[in-house]
Amino acid sequence: MNTGVEGESRAWQSRARAAWFTAGLTVVCVLAFATTVGACAWSTGQPGRVALESLYGLGSCRTTMENVGALALARVWVDGEWWRVVTTGLLHGSWIHLALNIWSLWSVGEWAERTWGAGRTAALFFATSIAGGIGSLVWAEAPVVVGASAGILGLAGALLVGRLLGDSVTREKLAAVSPIGLGVTLVVLFVVGAIVPVIAQAGHVGGFTLGCLACWAGLQRGWLRLGVVLVLTVAANEVVQIAAQPDARPQYHEFVGFRLLELDRADEALVAMERALELAPGDAQISNAVAYGLALAGRDLARADELVDVALRDDPENGNYVDTKGWIACRRGDVEAGRVLLEQAEALSDVPVEEIEGHLRDCASVGVPRETTSPP
Questions:
Q1: Which of 223, 244, 265 is the last residue in one of the domains?
Q2: Which of 125, 170, 223, 283 has the fewest Cβ atoms surrounding its Cβ within 10 A?
Q3: Tell me, what CATH number does 207's domain have?
Q4: First vs last C-alpha separation in the chain
Q5: Residue 321 class from Cβ within 10 Å (0-12 exposed, 13-18 middle, 19+ buried)?
Q6: 166 CB contacts (<8 Å, ≥6 apart)?
Q7: For residues 156 and 208, is the Cβ–Cβ distance under 8 A?
Q8: Which residues are within 8 A (CB) of 6 and not within 5 positions of it... i.e. 6 or more apart?
Q9: What is the DSSP letter of 262?
Q10: Claim to verify: residue 115 and residue 19 sit in the same structural domain
Q11: pLDDT at residue 6 is higher than 80
Q12: Tens-digit pLDDT profile for residues 254-287
């Protein structure tokens, strides 16, 4: 028994030495997640709750995740923190998320390092991870995005192109990689990504696309390679320009509005939120977001109530929408109705939500005089 364990240990050590970038990235991601969980537990003073949440999703740790480098989209747009597109690929939202990505990383990382070496594999991973972040910005995908999956899919895309179109040496190194098996796996991943809302699908597409294009560009020779690189550089510049201000996406204005509220720039925030509503009139999520923004700012609370009712007609059992309705009641001074709604929102939520709990604590103290609920 000991011999088998020792042999398995030596095998893993040999694999780690042969794929040292993959091994090193694994260690960094594990340490980064453990640090995030520890920092959140320390800041909230609820280590037991945070430890439990870390298994499936750090919903109450958004501030901590932003502090350690998560891709908070609005902080790129409003604060100019572009460095986040680099750091976000090292962070994860749960132990399940981390475990799945580490398994996927080893599935492709070892083959990439065998084929192109550690240096090129590292460059490809970080370039495609950044491309995934840019893709999330272009699509205004979610308020906060984390995960190594964009870089992993970038490596997978490069392996697929190398296996199908590479020179004889590359194809020989990748002979054991089934292009059909890899292709089917990628199709399944993208189909699941299109169905499951929490998956950063635009980020996946961005990373995978650059991985395929980078490998294909590397297959070209002479002036053709130079031409391809120039075209890709121009295209990348255009995509980054769109990512800096995806004005056609209502979520862009929604996320910017909430960030401006955090910065106490309420007038600018409400302009941004109204723009989101113009682009998506009647949309439940946007209607709720604008209603909540108005409630946070203490502005036009009667209209905020009408907007959240639009959202509730679409999904009356949505805890977020009920929470907004309750918070508006609190802001209008109707504490009794507000608390009833907030307790209902809490019951509708699958897990404890720190924001709802905060609203319940603060309901009685946030009311504003009715004559000041509308903007001047």
A1: 244
A2: 223
A3: 1.20.1540.10
A4: 79
A5: buried
A6: 174, 215, 219
A7: yes
A8: none
A9: H
A10: yes
A11: no
A12: 999 999 999 999 899 999 999 999 999 989 999 9
Residue 184 exposed, middle or buried by CB count within 10 Å (0-12, 13-18, 19+): exposed
Q: Over 50: is that where the pLDDT of 24 sits?
A: yes
Q: Do 9 and 154 reside in the same domain of the chain? A: yes
Question: Looking at the structure, do residues 197 and 76 belong to the same domain, yes or no?
Answer: yes
Q: Same domain for 144 and 62?
A: yes
Q: Which residue has the higher pLDDT, 3 or 136?
A: 136
CATH number at residue 303: 1.25.40.10
Nearest to 65 by CA among 27, 36, 22: 36
Q: Are 322 and 289 in contact (CB under 8 A)?
A: no
What global pTM score does this model have? 0.89
Q: Which residue has the higher pLDDT, 274 or 353?
A: 274
Residue 244 has pLDDT above 70, yes or no: yes
Neighbours of 300 (CB within 10 A): 18
Residue 54 has pLDDT above 80, yes or no: yes
Identify whether residues 324 and 282 lie together within a single domain: yes
Which domain does 287 fall in, by range? 251-372
Task: Give the residue among 275, 304, 288, 276 at the shortest CA–CA distance from 345.
Answer: 288
How many domains is the chain built from?
2
Q: For 141-179, write each residue's pLDDT tens digit.
A: 999 999 999 999 999 999 999 999 999 999 999 999 999
Q: Where are the alpha helices (DSSP H) in 245-315?
A: 250-262, 266-279, 284-297, 301-314
d(CA 168, CA 22): 25
Question: Cα–chain-centroid distance for residue 131?
Answer: 13
User: In this structure, are 63 and 193 located in the same domain?
Assistant: yes
| Final residue before a domain boundary, out of 227, 244, 261 | 244
What is residue 225's predicted lDDT score, i.e. its pLDDT? 87
pLDDT band at 8 (very low <50, low <70, confident <90, very high): low
Structure tokens at 113: 């390092």
Q: Are strands 144-145 and 71-72 parallel, antiparallel or unpaired?
A: antiparallel
Q: Are residues 212 and 272 in the same domain?
A: no
Strand partners, 145: 71
